[in-house]
Amino acid sequence: MKRHRLATLTFILATTAAVHPLSAAEQIEQHCLGLLWCTERAGESVSTDGLLWLYTSEERATYSRLAIRPLYSMEEDPTRDLLRRSVLWPLGTYERDGDRVRSHVFPLFWHAQDAGTAFTFTVPFYLKAIDGDSSWHHLFPLFSRHVVGDYYARNFWLGPLLMTTSDTRTDLSRWDFLFPLGHHSEDLSFSQTRFAPLYWAGEDRTNGDSYRYVLPFYGSSESETQRYHFVFPFYGRLDDSSAQVNRFSLLGLPPLKGFTTAPSLSLVEHATTATGTNHRIFPLYRYLVESTDDRTFDVLLLYSHQTTSSAGTDRFFPLYRYEHNGEDQTHEFGLLGYRETSWFRYQDSPSGNQHRLLGLYSYDRSREDSWQFSLLGYQAGSVYVYRSQADLTEDRLVPFHDYVRTGETSSLSLLGISEVSLYRNESGPSLRRHRLFPLYTLALSSLYLPS
Question: DSSP secondary structure string, 372-419?
Fold first, then answer.
């Protein structure tokens, strides 16, 4: 029994096979030591598998490969510039195929390279990328650099803390501090500096434009058509030849650049525009002369004088106000008050005229023969009222008499007003009635009136 087992084991482990007739035709030789090792030859090609395929090797002309699984593998062909290696796949790999290179050590290192491009990443600190003549280098989070050819370079220190840029094509030199708060750049045609929000400066050498601001206290800018200066809150000046505007201010906000027509919020201002000239010392006076010869003069917000080609206003509040309009042919004059609330008021127009002494009398007459007069009161509430229109007449002296005529109907009241009176007489086409309270009342309808 022991002899039988020994013979079987020897056959499995130590068998060497050579198939000469078949191999001779194809020139293939194969030798195996059971499942532990096998070697195969076919012409100049030799391959070996062993240790239950944990080991593999092959040589074929210039091509060769070797694998010791899972520790190491290699594949190479010098004629194709091919080389592949791996250690503990897929943790570590290297591959070169012509200009193409790939490698990594998972998960710490990654590298890729091809014609004109390259990429390297060392987790988590370093990154390098190349694309043509442009390259990036990063050492997180301390430093980054971007380069294009031999003319452009940008560097970053601690991200946006500090950035520098240079470009020899335009002679550019630039740095940024705590981007975007601090900035300085300069090239062949332009320079700019800022420390936001306090300091701003710049110059354009191509056209001579420049500006400089130390906010909110100082500002200055110049261009071909505009000059602007201010020292807040003392002084401000704006000269704009394109808009034909000159503004000067003292003690307050300066003129607003870009809003040439807007007045400045200051105590003193002098402005000259294409449409006129303006002087102001607030609240003492304001004087405005427009190109149409219209004029405005104000003093202490109390006195105002305005004139145009066809109208004018003169006012000293609350003493008097006078206004005339040549186009409308109107005149208005008031004393001690303002417009309708004046104590004395006179108004004249093509449609009529009015004058009034508040509380004493009121007179209103139109060009259509309609007029009204009242004493001791205001309009219909006065002690005496007389009103005349085309079909209406009213005459009343409170409380003595009240006479009203409307068309063909009329009424007369004595010692009272209207229905509330001692004596009243009413007459009309269809009715006549008179009454003496409390003595008698007489009313006649159209049935009893003589024809």
Answer: EEEESSSGGGSSEEEEE-SSEEEEEETTTEEEEEETTEEEEEEEEETT
CA 10 to chain centre: 93
pLDDT of residue 246: 92
DSSP secondary-structure letter at 18?
Answer: -
Measured distance CA(190)–CA(162) in Å, rounded: 21
Report the pLDDT averaged over residues 379-388.
81
DSSP state of 256: P
The closest of 61, 92, 51 to 74, measured between CA atoms, is 92
| C-alpha dihedral sign at 78, 79, 81, 83 | negative
Q: What is the mean pLDDT of residues 440-447?
A: 68
Query: Residue 26: what pLDDT?
Result: 54
Q: What residue type is assigned to position 63 of the chain?
A: Y
| pLDDT value, residue 24 | 44
Q: How far apart are CA 433 and CA 398, in angstroms?
A: 22
Q: Which helix (H) or strand (E) holds 83?
A: strand 82-87
Residue 136 burial (10 A CB sphere; 0-12, 13-18, 19+): middle
How far is it, in rounded angstroms, from Cα 77 to Cα 100?
14
**What integer pLDDT is reported at residue 387 of this predicted model?**
84
389 three-state secondary structure: coil
Two structure tokens written together for 24: 């001779």
Name 95's Cβ contacts closer than 8 Å, sequence gap at least 6. 83, 84, 85, 101, 102, 103
Which residues 6+ apart lie within 8 Å of 309 measured at CB?
292, 293, 294
CA distance 207 to 268: 33
Say if pTM beats, i.e. exceeds, 0.70.
no
- Single-letter residue type at 159: G
Residues 6+ apart with CB under 8 A from 165: 152, 153, 154, 155, 172, 173, 174, 175, 185
